[in-house]
Amino acid sequence: MITRRTFVAAAAATAAMPAYAFEVDPIFRPQKVAIKSDLVPGQILIMPRAHFLYFVEAPGVAMRYGVGVGKAGLEFTGNAKIGAKKEWPTWRPTNEMIEREPNHYGKFKDNDYVQPGGPGNPLGARALYLFQNGRDTFFRIHGTTSPSSIGRSVSNGCIRMINEHVMDLYERVPVGTPVTVL
User: What is the pLDDT of residues 1-34, one digit of tens each?
Assistant: First the structure.
């Protein structure tokens, strides 16, 4: 039987252990790259199969970020605009997500629970909300609590970024920024 003293000592020892951060593959770290010169500065271009998001800074120059994207059949494609931006956003899975994965999203079934923003929230530190024709698409460019998903096709359709990277992008783009997902 575990005693309270043993439990407290084990918890303290665990807290004192160094945390090992996930290291993203260097190719997925933000970097300035050359891009087609006909792309308009200020737009976002996402290439899901390559797992890259490009923010066009000037003709022929973009900041490239590695991203995680939607699983086959769940990905967003087309044109949108950033319709809203939120820091430490709240989150609730869509009804389709709850139906598709009831074991994973069971705590959201048959209620209006919304997960508060914070470090444990799946949307991470920032979210950019994609709109089409003035309406929310329910797709986001957002941070993640799962940095190992960068460079993979594993999400329910949104574009995931390392929290520090989405925080950088968030500061660069205003509401109204055009987004193209190929």
Answer: 455 554 344 444 344 334 456 688 999 999 999 9
Please tell me whether residue 165 adopts helix, strand or coil conformation.
helix
DSSP labels, 69-127: EEPTTT---EEEEEEEEEES--B---HHHHHH-TTTSGGGTTS---BPSSTTSTTTTEE
Active site residue 104: no
Which residue in the list 51, 104, 158, 165 is annotated as catalytic?
Answer: 158
Cβ-contact 126, 85 below 8 angstroms: yes
**Parallel/antiparallel/unpaired status of strands 69-70 and 61-66:** unpaired
Residue 51: count of CB within 10 angstroms of its CB? 22
Ramachandran class of 55: left when φ > 0, alpha when ψ lies in -120 to 50, beta otherwise? beta
Instruction: For residue range 79-103, list pLDDT tens digits in order.
Output: 999 999 999 999 888 888 888 888 8
pTM: 0.82
The answer to whether residue 142 is catalytic is: yes
Please give the DSSP secondary-structure letter assigned to residue 2: -
CA Rg, the chain, in Å? 19
> CA-CA-CA-CA torsion for 57, 118, 111, 74, nearest 10 degrees?
30
